[in-house]
Amino acid sequence: MPKPSKPASTTRRAAVVGANRIPFGKAGGAYAAASNLDMLTAALSGLVARHGLAGERLGDVMAGAVLKHSRDFNLTREAVLGASLSPQTPAADLQRACATSLEATWDVANKIALGQIESGIAAGVDSTSDAPIVVSDRLRRTLLKLSRAKTVPQRLQLLAGLRPGDLVPVAPDTAEPRTGLSMGEHQALTTREWGITREAQDAVALASHHNLAAAYERGFFDDLMTPYRGLTRDEALRPDTSAEKLAKLKPVFGLKGESPSMTAGNSTPLSDGAAAVLLASDEWAAERGLPVLAHVVDAEAAAVDFVRGEDGLLMAGAYAVPRLLARTGLGLDDFAFVEIHEAFASTVLTTTAAWADDDWSRRKVGLPAIGQVDPARLNVVGSSLAAGHPFAATGARIVGTLAKLLAERKASAADGAPVRGLISVCAAGGQAVAMILEA
Amino acid sequence: MTAEMREVRLAEVPTLGSLYAQALGRMAQTVMTTRQPTTLPAVRYAVDDVAADRDQLAEYQHLLGEPGTDVLPAGYVHVLAFPVAVAVMARADFPLPLLGMVHLANDVEQRAPLRLGDRLAVRAWAEDLRLHRAGTQVDLVTEVDRDGETVWRGVSTYLAKGRTVAGAAAAEPGERDVPALPPVAGQWRLRPDVGRRYAAVSGDRNPIHTSALGAKLFGFPRAIAHGMYTAARALATVGVARGDAFRWTVEFGKPVLLPGTVTFGLGARATGGHDYAGWDARSGKRYLTGAVTPL
């Protein structure tokens, strides 16, 4: 049995001071003409405006996108220059698939915890509407050789070598390079393996829409969001959806297997959007009169061997969370809120099923099961099914949302006891990142 | 603006294409008529409820390098509102010919940020008809209000070369001191399609910008860049340092032939704001000179 590593003894914890996102759009919707740079700049500008950071030099800004144009090699720095931060604020691009901005949060928080920086922003953005389309490898190599060719006959010879098929552009897709299966097809295999029903998946989707709609109604997102391009709410949100409506949808994944159950209703839509989180030391926040919503306690990344079918592609959260809890000595009961990214409704269900399965957990993770998640604590203000999922933006959306939930709960509780929240975000490549926040 | 001005309410912002076509028709007519107006029309054009277009805004921001937020770049507001001023210039009783006029200078005050979704009211009129050593010049004033408050004000100065309007005020006194060139901050390599791209986003499809043939008709060897494109690039380079309320001025020199390379310089003022200039590195001749200063 592998021994969990000891938590790092840090002198301080990074504070989540605030967060901002733009409403998430549906592919081809309100943000069809917006680029990743536009949306990231909009999310950062809103964060800067809300916290009075114009002209401020922050310690670092880390952000990324999953689908990225090659011209955007310095996407985050470009966005910083377009926001009203001091132009002396440095920035780095990073990427860990759908966990990109959770990874960014972790990285910025660690720099703050180590005392290397006092403040920073973690963010993510993605556009499926403005996705890069590239040329075929054969055309690309030919074009590169053409640029080096010196004579006309050399150029003609190179061009003559092209076939019509080489000219077809290549659009990105969500297929795993090593398996050729899309994320949905992978999750369809996992869904079947864990015996997850259509009804259970539709119930997760329904709750997501109703919870998100209710959160908008009570103004929960008012200080977490900047309207953008005419959107004031997430475009995918269907407040009036019902179990009946969801039940009518045709399955779209796992159609070759028995009783396919994954539909467009219980899978996240392709989305456009950006989200950002402001992190700092307590001192930095206090000096500026800014609140501390929560602190970053610890985080854990995990990966599974999905290539050989050892585990489902999106099951790494079933490893990351038990390890993280073991290291911090916390149990599921210690968390007031649990946020599991709804890549698919079934991802939430298979992950929580694995967490509760003692035999599976001991055999696979080498740790006892962490138990059942109380549904009343899970994704209480909705998640990706209703909000949408611009890949790299989701982690920052969840961190901001959870930090505010924790601050609200802490403020309403008289005892001053710590209020904790748990995050699990699965990612392409069989990965996941888990994080604990505490208010 | 004089008190006796009459306000004419237009249903919507006219398109520049239709105004140019009107003006072209009038050029043919004026050959026949003998009586030329000698004063500016005492009329103010007004359009209520003007709004930015989401996709046009994105295209403008991408072309000029402005941040892709919902804040309307000052140059985009010019694109949105200036056709109302052009409508004044396209009137039959306007004393100068719209087509072929030279944009000498532009002076914009952005008093607060305007955003996508704001309902705007635009007013425009002509004033200060005066002689210039090369002809007659006039100011076109455009004001943009939000909730009854003027948030954006632009003054565009145009020159009708070789025209002398009887009764126009005397020319401004001689040459002023030319400020030194600011330090080099960059280089704009303008591709041949820059005129067409700015035309598409601004609606200003004046042939001198979109085709070599059109440019030749007006005496230019090749198509020339829109002056406001170059001024807006300068503003975008100053970027967020301009703040929320600023004045953005430009004086145009030699036209930028396309394709072309502009050396761009920027210098911070001790009192706040930036001076900028764009010039030809070989000849040293200036394409544009201006400043972006806080209000």
Description:
The complex is a heterodimer of chains A (439) and B (295). Chain A has helices spanning 36-50, 75-82, 100-113, 137-148, 152-160, 183-193, 198-217, 243-248, 282-287, 317-328, 345-356, 358-365, 384-387, 394-412; strands spanning 15-21, 25-26, 60-64, 91-93, 119-127, 251-253, 262-263, 271-280, 294-303, 335-340, 420-427, 431-438. Chain A has 439 residues and is of the alpha+beta class. Chain A has a domain at 183-219 and 297-438: 3-Layer(aba) Sandwich (Peroxisomal Thiolase, Chain A, domain 1), CATH 3.40.47. Chain B is α+β, with helices and mostly antiparallel strands and 295 residues long. Chain B has two domains: 1-174, Hotdog Thioesterase (Thiol Ester Dehydrase, Chain A); 177-295, Roll (Thiol Ester Dehydrase, Chain A). Chain B is 25% helix and 33% strand. Chain B has helices spanning 16-30, 54-64, 74-89, 194-202, 207-210, 212-217, 227-238; strands at 6-10, 43-50, 102-110, 120-132, 135-146, 149-161, 184-190, 246-252, 260-268, 274-279, 286-294. In chain B, helix 2 (54-64) runs antiparallel to helix 4. The model of chain B has no long low-confidence stretch (mean pLDDT 91). Classes of the chains: A alpha+beta (439), B alpha+beta (295). Chains A and B meet through helix 1 of A and helix 2 of B.
